[in-house]
Amino acid sequence: MFNLPVEIDWPNALVINKKKLGGIIVETQNYTGKSRDYIVGIGINVNSKKHELPKHIDQPATSLTIEKETFIDRTNFARALLQNLDSWYLILKDERYEHIVEKWQEFCVNIGRRVNVRNAKKEFAGIFLGISNSGELILLLDNGRKKKFKVEHTIMENYRVQL
Fold first, then answer.
1. From residue 37, how far is each of 19, 83, 84 by CA, in Å?
2. Rounded Cα–Cα distance for residues 65 and 36 (Å)
């Protein structure tokens, strides 16, 4: 829509040139049988000006207005966003998880980078390979083995992942 170099900073931050534009969170609720609900939360800095953005945060922030150097019509933006979400919902509904994972990994800036992962009291070091079709973090350990980690409660700081 805006032809901007938006990337994903694992697991859910939207960034442009290492500046945080917003974030997305998706949670699922499973019920008996095939019934499943998805709850999606999206936050995007649309028309914030530089002086309105927080200064004392872990990562510089930006907005669409700053990056495009023009005012953004929020109604048109919301309409386009919802139409895009609807197309992704249909892909999700068809259980085409591999397509979603492939697209997510295409935009993720952390793939191929060295990270530390903490799981309970153990710490693992390796290269972040991406995510599995079920949403698990895949790490190539220093010993050459691949290990998957559930990511429901993860935090990544300075390329350190804590589970």
1. 32, 19, 19
2. 36
How do 160-162 and 114-119 pair as beta strands? parallel
Domains and CATH numbers, the chain: 6-107 (3.30.930.10), 114-162 (2.30.30)
User: What is the phi/psi pair of residue 34, to 5°?
Assistant: -95, 0
Distance separating alpha carbons of residues 90 and 117, to the nearest angstrom: 33
Asked if 119 contacts 104 with a C-beta cutoff of 8 angstroms, the reply is: no
Q: Residue 52 and residue 10: Cα distance in Å, rounded?
A: 25
pLDDT, tens digit (0-9, with 9 covering 90-100), for 44-72: 999 999 999 988 888 899 999 999 999 99
Whether the Cβ atoms of residue 132 and residue 124 lie closer than 8 Å to each other: no
Q: How far is CA 38 from the centre of its chain?
A: 16
3-class SS shares of the chain: helix, strand, coil, % to 5: 25, 40, 40
The model's pTM is 0.83
Q: Please say whether the beta carbons of 103 and 118 come within 8 A.
A: no
